[in-house]
Design brief:
Layout: H1 12-49, H2 62-89, E1 92-95, E2 100-107, E3 110-117, E4 125-128, E5 137-138, H3 150-153
Antiparallel strand pairs: 1-2, 2-3, 3-4, 4-5
Helix pairs in contact: 1-2
Length: about 150
């Protein structure tokens, strides 16, 4: 899906303004992701333990397992919907298990990410595009402006 929408860059204040809604969405994502992972693991274990002797043979739980897998797929679609909501806000989900989010930004004229993790009060970190969570740097310790000029953002 090609979009002609130009890449959006955020100042710290712009990203922080989105956090109230991002928090709600990320909470839903983390909870649903955990639930999906646990259910998928249980279904896989039950399927493995209940493997029939022949392909035509149905186990007692086959119908229930099929229904559980359909429910799992519906919840996967819900999860994708939540992720789509983040994308609409300009945020990028990096880790659904801990609620790690990045916002594209420009730092000293180069692309980088403002980084936020579920449980943090505000955006206080940034990292290079290829550095990831381990490469997070404090916004307070660097000369990153919270208000880049409009020319730099768009």
């Amino acid at each position: 899906m090609n979009s002609t929408k130009p890449k959006q860059y955020f100042t710290v204040s712009e990203a922080n303004q989105r956090l109230p809604l991002v928090r709600v969405i990320v909470d839903d994502i983390v909870i649903l992701h955990r639930d999906l992972s646990e259910r998928a693991e249980r279904i896989a274990l039950i399927r493995k333990a209940a493997q029939p002797g022949s392909r035509d043979e149905q186990t007692v739980y086959s119908e229930e397992l099929d229904e559980a897998e359909k429910d799992l797929e519906l919840d996967r679609q819900r999860l994708e919907g939540f992720i789509g909501e983040l994308v609409e806000l300009g945020a990028e989900l990096k880790d659904p298990s801990i609620g790690l989010i990045d916002f594209p930004t420009l730092i000293d004229g180069r692309e980088a990410y403002l980084c936020w993790k579920r449980g943090e009060n505000e955006i206080a970190f940034w990292h290079e595009l290829d550095a990831g969570f381990e490469g997070r740097q404090s916004l307070l310790e660097n000369s990153v402006s919270s208000d880049n000029s409009d020319d730099d953002r768009h």
